[in-house]
Give the backbone structure.
Amino acid sequence: MSLIDTIGGAQEFATLPPVAGKVLSLLENANSDFREITGVIETDPALTLKILQMANSPLYAVRSNVTSLQQAVLALGLNRVANIVLSVSIFSKFIMLSRSNSAEHMKNFWYHSSCTGMVAKNLATKIKRNFKDLEFIGGLLHDIGKMAMIQFDPENYAKVIELVRNEGILDVEAETRVFGSDHCVIGHLIARLWKLPKELQLIPGHHNDPWNLSEGKEVTAVIRVADLLCEMWGASVEEGITKVNLIEEKSWQVLCEFSPNLNNLDLELFTFELETEFRQASSFLNMVATDSATK
């Protein structure tokens, strides 16, 4: 049986975590209000605490201290809180299922994914594009295929990392050698199994090649640029990328197609500012990652 068939039929990958599924259903119901949604979230104290941590983090720069879920909703907006619920509960599910030999990998992926979401958010702000937080949530979820592969078979994923390091190949090539498939294919499968919103299904499957998309191309390109930069800045997940030249990156070229003024940027200054923001928030994100991995 192939990896795709195995993961597709595995109970732990078949459905969203209950709280996330209920929140998504309520959001799709026009008659739902924020009290119903916060009521569902409050049934999970650990998730509620994580949302409060996120709301008070440098990611959102809320002016006053957020001490309750209701305050978080008022400060961040219902959709943004729901998106945080979706991403954090998914990661919590994987962390909970992790075996001891995969826990360290999971912590690294949570950190990388958090950093990618944060850098994507800052990048979108800098280029003056409003994706309604999709760039942040997509950044958090872009590597869910890798997380599933690690959860399914951490011993073989260790071989993937070994191939990337020893042969200097990209992660997708190493994954295909070891598993017969790569994390983009697996990520898209899981996003469809979980019936995530369509735009969030595209990102796990196409974050490595956003230029091939007919919709969601720009936001996915933002996430890919953030992903590459995080690899360079110490939030790596062994993608096999050793250097990044934005001018030559096809994802950056996609962004320039949508915003031609980016061609005139001082890229060195631009990336320096992004990296400074990354460094300022990375200690918080590392704390969240360590926290999640030890739950």
Notes: Residues 3-293 form a domain with the Hypothetical protein af1432 fold (CATH 1.10.3210.10). Residues 267-293 form the longest helix (27 residues). The mean pLDDT is 84.
